[in-house]
Amino acid sequence: MATLISRFEKMPAFAQETRGASSFTQLARDEEMQQVEGLDKRCLLLLDSRALDRECLARTLTTHGLGMEVGAFGSIDEWRAKQSNCPPVGAVLLNIGARKVADVAAEIAKLASEFRPVPVVVLSDIDDLSQILRVLECGARGYIPTSVGVEVCIEAIGLAIAGGIFLPASSVLAVRHLIETERPEAPPLAGMFTLRQAEVVQALRKGKANKIIAYELNLRESTVKVHIRNIMKKLKATNRTEVAYKLNDLFTGEAGYH
Fold it and tell me: Which of 160, 119, 154 has the alpha carbon at shortest distance from 138?
């Protein structure tokens, strides 16, 4: 024992410190690995009634680094029958194939409600904006079209687990285009006409009679006539036909400018 102590005493100080630091680092790594292993015990519940498709997808996700086990089942009832032998569910991936959301909306909503807060993500052969929005309304946390690669699919599942919502880029662009096309048209030539005159201008462009304009704008017909006279003065027009002609030119010019 003395010899051992003697040898230890002759050991350089930095070596003793290094050995202690190494032990501490190893302990920290062991704790970290235990935490990671705890996360890895969660599984992805893959639901697909088509055996070949679900088995191929399960293997592909696993071999491409999903980072969690994949439990592939033909239905939720099949999973329930074997639930006791499966790890806790970390996310649900429902492959609806070419089916329309209208046919599976109730199933998606039921899954989202039953597994909450565990995210439910839908995989579909259809990349349609209305279908995607319907899926999100049912409570799903993501929509993955089968046109994307497996890496994107894995990232989408990871995003859902992290609390985000995945949408395909094509759908985001479609939403943007929809917003831009449906955005209410700003009153043209706002500096030329008052708000009420602009409303009358819109009606004149559609060829509406004074009585119709008065009814739709909740005005007296005499008031409509006053507005039309003021519009004619600003446009330097002598009659309604000339007003309509000049308005069309102005609107066409603005459209071409933008």
Answer: 119
CA dist 60 to 90, 117, 154, Å?
18, 26, 10
Does 19 score more than 60 pLDDT? no
Phi, psi of 44 (to 5 degrees): -95, 120
Point out the least confidently predicted range of 27-31, 43-47, 241-245. Answer: 27-31
DSSP assignment letter at 142 = B
Pairing mode of beta strands 69-73, 89-97: unpaired
Structure confidence by residue, pLDDT tens digits, 58-100: 999 999 989 889 999 999 999 999 888 888 999 999 999 999 8
For the purposes of burial, counting CB atoms within 10 Å of the CB of 171, is it exposed (0-12), middle (13-18) or buried (19 or more)? Answer: middle
What's phi and psi for 172, nearest 5 deg?
-65, -40
Q: Which two tokens stand for residue 6?
A: 């003697």
Contacts 24+ apart (CB under 8 A), 238-242: 240/204
